[in-house]
Amino acid sequence: MSVIKHKIIEEIALIEIYNPPVNAISAAVRVGLLETIENLSLNEKIRAIVITAPERTFLAGADIKEFGKKVDAPILGKICDKIESLNKIVVASLHGTPLGGGLEVAMSAHYRIAAPNTKVGLPEVLLGILPGAGGTQRLPRLCGVDMALDMMLTGKHVPAKEALSSGIIDEIAKNNNTIDNGIEYAKKLVKEGFRPRPTSQIQNKISDTEETSELILKFKDTASKKYKNLFSPHAIIRSVEEGLKLDFAEAILNERKLFEECIESPQRQGLIHSFFAERANTKIPELKEGKPIELNKIGIIGGGTMGTGISMAAMNAGFNVIMIEQNDEAIQKAKAKITSTYDRSVKLNRITTEQKNKTMDMFSATTNFSELKDRDLIIEAVFENMDVKKEVFVKLNQICSQDCILASNTSYLNVNEIASVVDNPSRVIGLHFFSPANIMKLLEVVVAEKTSKDTVSTAFNLAKQMRKVPVRSGVCDGFIGNRILSKYLVGMYHMVEDGASPFHVDKVIRDFGCAMGIFQVIDLAGGDIGWATRKRKAPFRHKDDRYVQIPDRVCERGWFGQKTSKGYYLYGENVDFLTPNPEIEVICEQERKRAGITPKKFDDKEILDKYIAAMVYEGTKILSEQIALKPSDIDVVFTNGYGFPKWRGGPMKYADMIGLDKILKNIQKYSEEDPRFWTPPKLLEDLVKQNKNFDSLN
Ligand code: 3HC
Ligand code: NAI
Description:
Layout: E1 4-9, E2 12-17, H1 27-41, E3 48-52, H2 76-85, E4 89-94, H3 101-108, E5 111-114, E6 119-120, H4 135-143, H5 145-154, E7 158-159, H6 160-166, E8 171-172, H7 178-191, H8 210-226, H9 232-243, H10 248-264, H11 266-280, H12 285-289, E9 297-301, H13 305-316, E10 320-324, H14 328-347, H15 353-360, E11 363-366, E12 377-380, H16 386-399, E13 405-408, H17 415-419, E14 428-433, E15 442-446, H18 453-465, E16 469-473, H19 481-498, H20 502-512, H21 518-525, H22 527-537, H23 550-556, E17 569-570, E18 579-580, H24 582-594, H25 604-624, H26 631-641, H27 651-658, H28 660-673, H29 675-678, H30 682-689
Parallel strand pairs: 2-3, 3-4, 4-5, 5-8, 9-10, 9-12, 10-11, 12-13, 13-14, 15-16
Antiparallel strand pairs: 1-2, 6-7, 14-15, 17-18
Helix pairs in contact: 1-2, 2-3, 3-4, 4-5, 5-8, 5-9, 8-9, 9-10, 11-26, 13-14, 19-25, 20-25, 25-28
Bound molecules: 3-hydroxybutanoyl-coenzyme A (3HC) and 1,4-dihydronicotinamide adenine dinucleotide.
């Protein structure tokens, strides 16, 4: 089927665009649209042209897959300019999500009518680019510089009503029938004698005044703090600011130049990789055949940090929750935590008191396990201890129905072993939420040996309902995320014992773009958790494994981080953010002496190289063992759960971008000093030999 169809109804020409799933503006759409418009413009009988995309949505933007490739087709900006220059009225009839290039096409039309379900936006910034088909110039003309910059810097979707009141659209239709809406509106405009109205000539909302300069300065100031590592937000502001001083045609050329700079930037590659990786995560074998079961009632065992967060995530998605705790005191504590979180949301105007009360009505807590008998899904979040977990699952096996799904939120433990204590292990799965679970997007879905396809499908469905980003993981110690974290954490301990300062390490990681340094993360999660894990693993440690005792010395002093007001950093009301605990350097010195190590100096590059190498090292092993099915899944885990910058694509994409040969060379160099920790992974060697990258495995 042709991507562009058109028909003529009396004096109105109707253009229909069909490019499923979201009518992205591919080369074929651009070629067809330009040709159709040029032909229709020659037909003197036609008084108005209506542009529609009748299926799922009006054009959701340029075809992202084409970025960075050489494509033989007119650029979208040229088509927008052509549409705007027509001497017949052009109406864009919108519905769904006219985003990016889609909204740019709509803004180059002379009038815009939108179905009530419409949300418009210019989300290019989320892909590391700027609106490159006139968007940075036409949007301010329609809604003013303030709103336009806000929309372009956040990428937010603006609902029809707000789009109408701000001038982005001209009318909201009564229903979602985009073809009829467009035709009727065009007929009305013709009948009432309206003329083409080029957006480029609208001037009343933009002016190069002192007031506008101040406004732009305000945006620059915010951008320098909020988007300090990013390229495209600053390019967006520049395009708007410089555009105000140029005539429209020059401003469009300037926008194009900045757009091309963004396209060339590695940030664009990283962000677009993240966009597709976050959609490829659900393409897993189990979902092809598995059928999700319907969930209504959820049971949560444990009301600590995770149990309370998961309960809120479940209630926010509309599930009824019963929580089980050990005693009344723990119940009261859990309830107080949940209530205070919702109270804060009310205070911040994120929800109303009525919504809070309605949500809290879905929650109850008890010490009585038998109340779980009508539940469809149980999520266990008790202490990280195999015996405690098994005891809970034995009880659940007796109380719950045989098809109630039983999930564990364990961070490291073997889900196969947990599943071994129930009669029907096909319904046992790991659901590894991240803290705070009501906020963090990542959900590792841990598929055990006997987990059924239906159970996996149900877990992915649950993630969708909870608006989480699910990633499938196999069973191993720490699954995808924590296993990789453990590797680079130990790698960084080695470096610190060799002479690096933990505060320098953290700074390098933050400068790279990560949300937090690794020692900050330890302080946030609680140093005691890692300490317990190290003790658990101590009996299995090989005698030749290098073991750094610095973190144990820190924990022995009771310094567990934020919760004890002291860890690697100091905390408290009058303490500045990121104030190092001065005693840490003393401990490091003592430990280096004890281990007989002469401290070396490390520069930023050496620290970053080792940090990345350790991640990629373990990521590669995880791929060889099929714990992660594809490299992009590892990227999704790190960008959604571990603060790795999305604009770097994730550790595996970043490795591809800097070159796997370089990473392998570093690993080979490190392995000369510590072959047990750094044996070069075979998969990495093979990829380098074959001149391939991780992307070839996606
Ligand atoms: N190009 C290519 N493919 C796209 C696409 C695009 N712009 N937008 C979505 N898709 C694909 C997705 O990859 C997915 O493919 P899959 O089924 O094979 O995984 C499919 O369309 C459906 O997408 P979603 O799963 O995201 O569907 P939702 O219904 O959840 O969301 C949406 C729909 C809101 C349109 C969302 O897909 C979205 O936000 N898309 C990106 C919109 C965007 O960023 N537009 C600007 C592009 S850049 C641009 O226009 C430059 C211009 O200024 C020159
Ligand atoms: P926590 O110590 O804050 O809470 C555990 C709760 O379980 C306590 O309130 C305790 O009273 C309760 N509990 C213990 N045994 C119970 C039983 N038999 N019946 C009912 N309640 C019982 O621990 P946290 O941090 O919430 O961790 C829970 C689980 O989640 C662990 O497996 C942990 O590894 C995992 N996890 C923790 C993360 C974190 O950042 N804290 C992140 C992801 C997973």
